[in-house]
Amino acid sequence: MKYVSTRGQAPSLDFQGVTLAGLASDGGLYVPESWPQFSHDEIAAMAGLPYARLAQKIMQPYVGDCLTPERLLELCEQAYGRFAHAAVTPLKQLDETQWVLELFHGPTLAFKDVALQLLGLLFEEFLARPREDGGDEHITIVGATSGDTGSAAIDAVAGRAKVDIFMLHPHGRVSDVQRRQMTTVIAPNVHNIAIDGSFDDAQAMVKRMFNDSAMTGRFGIAAVNSINWARLMAQVVYYFYAALQLGAPHRKVAFSVPTGNFGDVFAGYVAAKMGLPIERLIVATNVNDILHRALSAGDYSASTVTPTAAPSMDIQVSSNFERLLFDGCGRDASALAAQMKHFEVTKAMQLTNAQRESAAALFSSARADAGDMANAMRWAFEATGEVLDPHTAIGLHAARAAEGIPAGVPIVTLATAHPAKFVDAVERATGVRPGLPARVGDLFEREERCDRLPGNYEAVAAYVAERATPKHG
Ligand SMILES: Cc1ncc(COP(=O)(O)O)c(C=O)c1O
Ligand SMILES: N[C@@H](CCOP(=O)(O)O)C(=O)O
Asked: Which residues form the Tryptophan synthase beta chain-like PALP domain (predicted)?
């Protein structure tokens, strides 16, 4: 399998290359040059497979000969062996139509663990391979987080040889649990930075570093955000896992996905491209609703980020939307590059008719304000006894409001975080104060380590350059 950039000017890479590269050198995002497909019978034969086996089957076409099937399976078993639930991502029924897929049973209590536990192992596997010149390769991960990617990535790479991680979060805009899950990991290769600004500011600095030749010349800058293809690939698996349990491929399933950077829901799109019969993907946003405006009216224009009780979705510039727009314009990389450059300058763009029509075939969208979110949490608790986190509640709000889904089609809301990560919002809505699972341990007693920097690229680049290990040993 080869990977190409959405902007057409970067070299194509194999899976190992794309995993270590992160953002493409032309500023675009890597995507497979074509979507592998499974037949109806091949999907039917996957029913009942344990999670790790299913993961190996779904991901092998993307990995190609960079890992043997046996080795990929070993890595999946190792990654998913750390989850606290035997089903890895268990499915729960709320009522006749509504289901939730619990994606928060990993070490840091959010769906990011599903991909990042594997990505940590993939980094180690590929960095252990000898380089042609006999030298040693070292990577410097630079990431941006609105709360959950940071802790999951740090857990996945803390203490690993040949890897440094620098994680930027917006100061004061993540929950206490999210912050402590990052800042209390004291390891020589882990560097937490709180920046003044929003997640979008942090993400823009990360992307800029990939295009800063002074930095990329010295350091092997790598990504753990969903700009890294391997993140999305691993997230495709749970769409198959849930749908197979609900009768796929003989029955269609709809998914409602709380969305910020468009990575999780793009993985659903990939599952559909691979042959999974998905009735609809519902993109659920909070009041930072650029994606809802884009999908419902073609208007992709960013405004200032509003802090909400679902902070991980406080995002206005959704990286992975570019991957959808690429398919939506018939993979015309030069047209897309011009469209994205225009957006980068003006922070606004209109989707073309072709992009709108191709998205409308699978996606719909909804926006939830604070009241909608609290009502969904309350309904879930009072009607079903389930305590949901604010992000999941936004997904459930959109699932319950969805129109035009045929009777008999189950709607699965992705439960993206454990409610204990956002205790105050959950308590306000339900009166229940969920406790942290024992596996998180003494989070509130541990020492925190984090530096604060201005929201300024030069300051961040200098900080990284002072502490990172050069790429070739
Ligand atoms: C708990 C939670 N829900 C939803 C999202 C949105 O996911 P995505 O950015 O992949 O759209 C995030 C952040 O990514 C998150 O941390
Ligand atoms: N919500 C995310 C933001 C980063 O998104 P990613 O999926 O691109 O890593 C977070 O919690 O950090």
From this structure: 89-331
Q: Would you say the pTM of this structure is higher than 0.80? A: yes
- The highest-level CATH class for domain 91-108+233-430 is alpha beta
**Which helix (DSSP H) or strand (DSSP E) does residue 442 occupy?**
none
Which residue stretches of 66-225 are H helix? Answer: 69-80, 112-127, 148-157, 176-183, 199-210, 213-218
Q: Whose CA is nearest to atom 7 of ligand 2?
A: 226
Report the Cα 399 to chain-centroid distance in Å.
20
Q: Does 355 contact ligand 2 (Cβ within 6 A)?
A: no
Q: Which ligand is nearest to the CA of 281?
A: 1
> From the CA of 203, which ligand is nearest?
2
221 three-class SS: strand
CA-nearest residue for atom 15, ligand 1, is: 312
ipTM reported for the complex, 2 dp: 0.99
Q: What is the CA(22)–ligand 1 centre distance, in A? A: 19
Distance 72 CA to ligand 1 centre (A): 26
> For each of the chain's 473 residues, which pLDDT tens digit applies?
999 999 999 999 999 999 999 899 999 999 999 999 999 999 999 999 999 999 999 999 999 999 999 999 999 999 999 999 999 999 999 999 999 999 999 999 999 999 999 999 999 999 999 877 766 789 999 999 999 999 999 999 999 999 999 999 999 999 999 999 999 999 999 999 999 999 999 999 999 999 999 999 999 999 999 999 999 999 999 999 999 999 999 999 999 999 999 999 999 999 999 999 999 999 999 999 999 999 999 999 998 999 999 999 999 999 999 999 999 999 999 999 999 999 999 999 999 999 999 999 999 999 999 999 999 999 999 999 999 999 999 999 999 999 999 999 999 999 999 999 999 999 999 999 999 999 888 999 999 999 999 999 999 999 999 999 999 76
Among protein residues, the one with the nearest Cα to ligand 2's atom 4 is 145
Q: How far is the CA of 145 from the centre of ligand 2 (A)?
A: 5
Hey, which residues are catalytic here?
Answer: 112
Per DSSP, 110 falls in state B
Q: By the 8 A CB rule, do 453 and 460 touch?
A: yes
Ligand nearest to the CA of 152: 2
